[in-house]
Amino acid sequence: MALEGTLKDFSPFDIMELIDFKQKTGLLFVTAPEGETITLGFEKKGLVLAQSSTKKNDLQLGNILVRAGKITEANRDKALEMQKGTLDRLGFIFAREKYCTEKDICESLRIQIKRVFFTLLRWSEGIYIFEPRESIDYFHEFIKPVFVQPLSVKGLMMEGALMIDEWPMVEKVVKSLDMVFRRLPVKQEIKTLTEEEAFDFEGSATKNDTAIHLTPDEKILYDLIDGRQSVSSILEKTLFSEFTCCKIIFDLVKKDLLEENKESPLEVNPPSKKDAASGDVLSDEIVRKNWEAARVLVQRALPEALILEITLSEKKATLLQGETDLEQWPDLIMAIYQEAKPLGNRSDVGVFEYVADEVGIALFWDHRTDYMLVVVSALNGSIGASRFRAHVATVTRCVIV
């Protein structure tokens, strides 16, 4: 079947509907006027491959695995260096070097396929050509076929059609990925729905509840909104696609939970030093005493860890345990915070975690003041990443109630 032409004459929907109807096996190449090329691989049962020539982060397999916490940035970069010399597929290198499991790779490939597919659906200009093939080499002997399940083209097209219908509405609120949003004060309690409750269309679980209810995905994004990070920066920290991220922000704005922060992120007023319940101004000394239990827990659990107190507004660090050059930490900690993963949040306390190859860092930030408790632990044989996370979770339960 010879199939080639321009998207002005034959839309992406039309092309993929025809390929799926004919149940053809082959590769579809589509090139935009700007030069980006998207490649889709089809088999009779569905879509098995999707790649983009762009370096856009949310479309790259390595970045998807990093965001999912399946590989480290260091291992991703090592694999990219290896790829330059061998031209092996990145997934093959990840599996060969045992950076992650075969299942992790295939789950991330499915995310990549959907994102690339939905990106193509929005294109209105470009040229395309479909090349029939006997088979598509979309996995190697290192990935068991049981993990590789073709995606339904019809299902993806239905999901994509809904996305395209909603994009114009979403873009009226999220006009650019450079925008910064901040939380609005709310009087009601904010509750996170379970997966079952989120799909309870009759609303029986929340019928008599006056709280504001967020889906699990909404809560993840809501916790990341801090009035400083752009939408693009937040997108880097999640597994959400660009559309999903923007749609959630749109929904949170409509729920009066967020608004655009039109101030410069560097000029955002620091959190007020007031107790959420009484409104009384808090001194740094009172805050430190309130955190005493958390400090004791950390010191007992991780006796060899570096533990600091940081007063962010004054760029002042105080050493509680270990040895370090204190002057570097106030600036360094904000860089770490930008890369850290939120573990829990409420109106007055946030917990963030950063785990790299050989170090684990936990940030316990009291939003009522500019006080932060910082725990830095070397990850080695006795203290691995899982044990470090377990200790952080214990302290989190102490400060997030």
Whole-number average pLDDT?
A: 80
Number of helices: 14
The count of DSSP E runs of length 2 or more, i.e. the number of strands, is: 15
Specify Rg, calculated over alpha carbons: 24 Å
Q: Main β-sheet, in a few words?
A: 6 strands, antiparallel
N-to-C terminal Cα separation, in Å?
A: 62 Å
Helix and strand pattern: EHEEEHHHHEHEEHEHHHEHHEEHEEEEH
**Content-based structural category:** alpha+beta
Produce a short descriptive summary.
The protein has 401 residues and is α+β, with helices and mostly antiparallel strands. The chain is built from 14 helices and 15 strands.
Description:
It comes from hydrothermal vent metagenome. This protein is an alpha+beta fold. It folds into 3 domains: 3-162, no CATH class; 172-267, no CATH class; 284-399, 2-Layer Sandwich (Beta-Lactamase). 38% of the residues lie in helices and 20% in strands. The chain has helices at residues 12-22, 61-67, 73-86, 90-96, 102-121, 153-171, 195-198, 216-224, 231-236, 242-254, 284-290, 292-301, 329-339, 385-399, and strands spanning 3-6, 26-31, 37-43, 46-52, 127-132, 181-183, 190-192, 212-214, 258-260, 306-311, 316-321, 341-345, 349-355, 359-366, 371-378. The strands form 4 sheets. Strands 11-10-15-14-13-12 form a 6-stranded antiparallel sheet, sandwiched between helices. It has a 5-stranded antiparallel sheet with strand order 1-5-2-3-4. Strands 6-9 form a two-stranded antiparallel sheet. Residues 140-146 and 266-282 have low confidence and may be disordered.
